[in-house]
Design a protein that fits this description.
Layout (H helix, E strand, L loop, with lengths): L1 H22 L6 H6 L6 E4 L5 E5 L4 E2 L9 H11 L11 H14 L9 H10 L6 H17 L2 H11 L6 E2 L1 H9 L8 H10 L3 H4 L8 H16 L4 H9 L14 H15 L1 H6 L3 E4 L3 H17 L7 E8 L4 E6 L19 E2 L6 H10 L7 E4 L4 E3 L3 E3 L10 E4 H6 L3 H11 L1 H10 L22 E2 H9 L13 E5 L5 E4 L17 H11 L2 H8 L13 E6 L5 E7 L4 E7 L16 H13 L13 E7 L12 E7 L23
Parallel strand pairs: 1-5, 3-4
Antiparallel strand pairs: 1-2, 5-14, 6-7, 6-18, 8-13, 9-12, 10-11, 14-15, 16-17, 17-18, 19-20
Helix pairs in contact: 3-9, 3-11, 5-6, 5-7, 9-11, 11-12, 15-23, 16-18, 16-21
């Protein structure tokens, strides 16, 4: 009798041991299940945390804390997926019995009866094959997980794991994909819809032509919530009749030219696998509200100039002291493929026209010239080896005779600029430009004097770096769109510390502060440019001293305006991507300057009156107001700025810098 009892007791024990030897080998621990993180999308954010773009490979997943998920979404999912979740030990006997009954009726393994814990295990570490062995291993792992983790921890893992159809995995990605809102913003109606998707996302999705099954599933979920007592009759009725407003079926891509430009930079820095699956949080320098405003200004401005054969426009706004890119508009409409809208003109090579002349005259000032140095604006002919004679001309085909450096730059006369480049030398000019961010002029003909007139192509982004040298009083700052990057655990793995430091992000000194200041003062001198450009109202910002330079290329293929204050810089281009000409534009009155003026007014709307700082290496001296006559004996004197050491150019005595107001731009 005793022996028979032992045999009866031993048989099931041996059977259990045999079963465990089949199930346990190779099974991960609970810690391994938790650490086996699925791919997570990386988020590209503006400087204030607004979402611009999600980077992912096959699964768009954005992990969130359970505290961020609304209670009605949790309850809706539990109501249809596992209403005994908080009471079962990881498996449900009633669910398993129901599944076994249905499988026997169907003649195969058709239903699993899985709890949320089992679903989590299956999706995280097991295959999706429908076999009894896999089901048994799933049960063992579910027990392990329930023993190791709290219900809240299991639920959080599940909500970030589960598939909602398409590329959307997890509740945050689902909320963004279907409703373009964060999970915490979902209504009860929307939560019921998402919960109803889980059983079969491809079947119950809302985008199948003519399908309304998702409404049936929503009603079913709401009914379960009502039956469980998690909502009342009033909430049920309101949610049932609340219409679902789905987001457009396209990838969320805000500030598209900027976002894709930053993606390229991030790929180079971190690699594509980490970017697409590592769950990074990238905070950029972009101000999304400003970006949208600038996009509207560019698009509307180009539309207004349609009759002038203007087909496209681009703009860039930076903080010149740090290089932060605040707005980047690469075209009128990124999504207009018929007009090559996806081309980012801020990164394209285009001829800059006369916007490059400030570099020429900055080098002249560096070599000892002054704002009163005399240039002869008369016809010239230069011999270029292997090319023959080069005969530059002014845009109006007229000549001004003797003019000062201030007048030559302010009026954008071509012949004085060419003469000055001859004196500087093209190789030295190219070398200087390269230190300021222009890297597209290498291997140029050493006699290409038209470089000073903008014949050498540049990128708007690089031109902005060159121009940053002037408000920074001699120090260029390279544009940089990234503030900081965090990994999926919240640890900061990159930060551009110079943005918040007192040192700033400026590069090596390229010009003396006084040289940069003189360029600022000349480019903001409305009176000096009046003779050629007239009132040029587009170049004036009332109440502010703003420096600005325009540029136009041959046959009106490109038209530019780039200007700045001490802490804001805006560059604008208009033209056509294919290089076809525009017509009837006038620098300072109609063209890129019109768009630039609107952008600058937007930037300075709430700013106090701006004036450029006068550095210590500048002195101000009375000179003759006629310009070329330095004597003050027979004319009304005015004040002119000089670098210390070049005061001999004036003959009316000296005043200390800062005694009077600087020249005014508006």
């Amino acid at each position: 009798m005793k022996r028979r009892f032992l045999i009866i007791l031993t048989v099931p024990l041996l059977a259990c041991l045999a079963l465990l030897t089949v199930l346990l080998p190779g099974l991960p621990s609970a810690e391994e299940i938790v650490s086996a993180r699925p791919p997570a999308s990386s988020l590209l954010l503006d400087r204030h945390g607004e979402l611009l773009y999600r980077f992912y490979d096959e699964q768009d997943r954005i992990p969130v804390d359970l505290s961020e998920v609304p209670e009605h979404l949790v309850q809706a999912i539990l109501a249809v997926e596992d209403h005994d979740f908080y009471t079962h030990p990881g498996f449900s006997l009633s669910g398993m019995a129901r599944a076994l009954r249905n499988n026997m009726r169907g003649g195969g393994v058709l239903e699993g009866g899985s709890t949320i814990t089992q679903q989590l295990v299956k999706n995280r570490v097991l295959s999706t094959e429908k076999t009894l062995l896999r089901k048994a291993r799933e049960l063992v792992l579910a027990l392990r997980l329930e023993w190791r983790l709290s219900k809240a921890e299991i639920l959080e893992l599940y909500l970030n794991q589960v598939a909602f159809g398409g590329a959307a995995y997890g509740v945050e990605a689902a909320a963004l994909s279907y409703f373009d809102k964060h999970v915490g913003e979902l209504t009860l109606s929307e939560s019921a819809f998402l919960a109803g998707l889980l059983r079969a996302p491809s079947r119950y999705g809302p985008f199948r032509t003519g399908s309304t099954e998702y409404l049936y599933r929503k009603r079913l979920v709401l009914g379960r919530l009502l039956a469980e007592g998690w909502i009342d009759q009033g909430e049920y009725t309101a949610a049932l009749h609340e219409p679902l407003r789905f987001a457009e079926r396209r990838v969320t891509l805000r500030a598209p030219h900027f976002s894709l430009y930053v993606r390229d930079l991030l790929t180079q820095r971190f690699g594509e696998p980490l970017l697409d699956t590592g769950g990074l949080r990238i905070r950029t320098t972009l101000n999304l509200q400003l970006q949208e405003d600038v996009q509207a200004i560019v698009s509307n401005g180009v539309a207004e100039m349609f009759r002038h054969w203007v087909g496209n426009g681009a703009a860039l706004v930076t903080a010149p002291g740090t290089g932060e890119i605040l707005a980047m508009v690469g075209s009128v409409n990124y999504f207009d493929a018929g007009k090559d809208g996806e081309v980012n003109v801020t990164l394209a090579l285009r001829q800059p026209g006369s916007t490059i002349k400030p570099l020429t005259y900055a080098m002249a000032l560096e070599d000892g010239k002054t704002a009163l140095s005399i240039y002869t604006d008369e016809p010239i002919e230069l011999e270029v080896p292997d090319e023959g004679a080069y005969t530059p001309r002014n845009i109006d085909y007229e000549f001004d005779g003797e003019i000062t450096l201030r007048q030559a730059l302010a009026r954008s006369r071509n012949i004085p600029a060419v003469n000055q480049l001859v004196e500087i030398g093209v190789p030295r000019f190219i070398a200087k430009a390269e230190t300021l961010g222009i890297h597209s002029w290498r291997d140029q003909n050493p006699y290409r004097y038209a470089l000073t007139l903008g014949s050498g192509e540049v990128r708007m982004l690089d031109l902005a770096q060159l121009f940053s040298t002037f408000p920074n009083l001699g120090y260029p700052a390279a544009p940089d769109p990234i503030l900081e990057v965090f990994d999926r655990d919240g640890a900061r793995i990159y930060a551009r510390e110079c943005v918040s430091s007192t040192a700033g992000c400026k590069g090596e000194q390229a010009f003396a502060p006084g040289v940069a200041f003189l360029i600022n003062d000349i480019l903001s001198d409305s009176r000096a440019r009046e003779e050629t450009l007239g009132q040029a109202l587009d170049l004036r910002i009332p109440g502010h001293q703003v420096a600005v330079k325009t540029g136009t290329t041959d046959l009106l293929r490109d038209n530019w305006a780039i200007g700045y204050t001490t802490d804001r810089l805006a560059a604008v281009w208009i033209g056509n991507n294919d290089g076809s000409p525009m017509r009837y534009l006038h620098s300072g009155q109609l063209g890129a300057s019109t768009i630039w003026n609107r952008i600058m007014r937007r930037l300075l709307l709430t700013k106090p009156e701006h004036r450029f700082q006068v550095p210590p290496d500048i002195v101000r001296l009375p000179v003759c107001s006629t310009g070329t006559d330095r004597s003050c004996s027979d004319c009304q004197p005015r004040e002119e700025y000089f670098l210390r050491g070049t005061e001999s150019a004036a003959q009316c005595g000296a005043l200390a810098a800062g005694d009077n107001e600087t020249s005014e731009a508006g």
